[in-house]
C-alpha cells in the first residue's frame, strides 16, 4: 500500500534530518585523519550506530514497500562503516583490537544470529513482528545515553556537554519519524520516537535552564567539573526510524571537550 502524501512528506523530512545527523561527526574524523590519531575517541558509538542501521534496514526489507527506511538506513550503514574504517586506520593497536572485537560480536555475531533465527523460525507477518520488536527493544535499551548526558548537565549546571543545535535537530528527527510511523500505522517506528521526542524536549528544557554562562568564581560548578572529569568523548546518535541514542564518556584530565557527533 502506497504511503499517503503526508506520510511521504514526514518520511522525506526524517530522511533529510537524519542524513544531516549522520554527517555530524565528519569534523571529528577529519581531525583524526589530519592528526593521524584517534586521540582517545571511541569507536563504540559508531559500531552501535551501524548495528542499529543494519537492524532497521533488515526490518525495512522484510516488511516490503519501505523505501523511505531503506534509503536512510542504507546511507547510515555506509557512513558509519566509513567512520569505523577511519578509526581502525588511525587507532593504536589496543583500541583497534577492542573495536574489532565489538564489531565481530555485535555487527557480525548478534546481527547474523537475529537474521538467521528469524529466517529459520518465523515467516511472513510473524517475522516482521519479531524483528520490529527487536528494533524497538534495542532502541529503548540505549536510551540510557541521553539520561547520562542530562544527569551530567544537571550535576555541572552547564550545557557544555549538550550542544543545542544537535539536540534540536535530533528532536525534530524524532517528531518527523514519529509522525511517519503514525501515518503509516507502524508501531515499531512510532514507539521509540515517542521516547526520543520526550528526551529531546527534556534536553531543550535543561538547555533553557542552564544556558546562561556562570561566573568564573562560582566554585560549585568548578568543583563539580573537577569531580566528573568526563569531557573528552561523547558519541551521541539517534538513528533514523529508531529514535535511539548512544553515548560513551571517557575519563580525561584535559580541557578537550570535542564531541564526536
UniProtKB/TrEMBL annotation:
Specify the protein's topology with respect to the membrane. Answer: Multi-pass membrane protein
Q: Where is this region: Disordered?
A: 218-261
Which InterPro entries does the UniProt entry name for this protein? SWEET, SWEET_rpt
Listed under GO cellular component are: plasma membrane
Which residue ranges run through the membrane?
6-31, 43-62, 68-90, 102-122, 128-149, 161-181, 187-210
Provide the GO MF annotations for this entry.
Answer: sugar transmembrane transporter activity
Function noted in UniProt: Mediates both low-affinity uptake and efflux of sugar across the membrane. Mediates both low-affinity uptake and efflux of sugar across the plasma membrane.
Q: What is this protein called?
A: Bidirectional sugar transporter SWEET
The organism of origin for this protein? Platanthera zijinensis
- Quote the gene name from the UniProt entry: SWEET14
Amino acid at each position: 500500500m502506497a504511503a499517503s502524501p503526508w506520510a511521504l512528506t514526514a518520511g522525506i523530512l526524517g530522511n533529510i534530518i537524519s542524513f544531516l545527523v549522520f554527517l555530524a561527526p565528519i569534523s571529528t574524523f577529519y581531525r583524526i585523519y589530519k592528526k593521524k590519531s584517534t586521540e582517545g575517541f571511541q569507536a563504540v558509538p559508531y559500531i552501535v550506530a551501524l548495528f542499529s542501521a543494519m537492524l532497521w534496514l533488515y526490518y525495512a526489507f522484510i516488511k516490503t514497500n519501505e523505501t523511505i527506511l531503506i534509503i536512510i538506513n542504507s546511507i547510515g550503514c555506509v557512513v558509519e562503516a566509513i567512520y569505523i574504517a577511519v578509526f581502525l586506520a588511525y587507532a593504536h593497536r589496543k583500541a583497534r583490537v577492542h573495536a574489532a572485537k565489538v564489531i565481530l560480536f555485535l555487527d557480525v555475531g548478534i546481527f547474523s544470529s537475529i537474521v538467521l533465527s528469524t529466517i529459520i523460525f518465523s515467516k511472513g507477518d510473524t517475522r516482521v513482528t519479531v524483528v520490529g520488536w527487536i528494533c524497538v527493544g534495542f532502541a529503548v535499551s540505549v536510551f540510557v545515553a541521553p539520561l547520562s548526558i542530562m544527569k551530567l548537565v544537571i550535576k555541572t549546571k552547564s550545557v557544555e556537554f549538550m550542544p543545542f543545535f544537535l539536540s534540536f535537530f535530533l528532536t525534530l528527527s524524532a517528531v518527523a519519524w514519529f509522525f511517519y510511523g503514525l501515518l503509516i500505522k507502524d508501531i515499531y517506528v512510532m514507539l521509540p520516537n515517542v521516547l526520543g521526542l520526550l528526551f529531546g524536549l527534556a534536553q531543550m528544557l535543561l538547555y533553557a535552564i542552564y544556558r546562561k554562562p556562570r561566573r568564573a568564581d562560582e566554585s560549585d560548578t568548578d568543583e563539580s567539573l573537577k569531580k566528573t572529569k568526563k569531557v573528552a568523548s561523547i558519541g551521541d546518535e539517534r538513528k533514523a526510524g529508531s529514535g535511539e541514542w548512544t553515548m560513551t564518556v571517557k575519563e580525561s584530565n584535559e580541557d578537550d571537550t570535542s564531541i564526536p557527533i
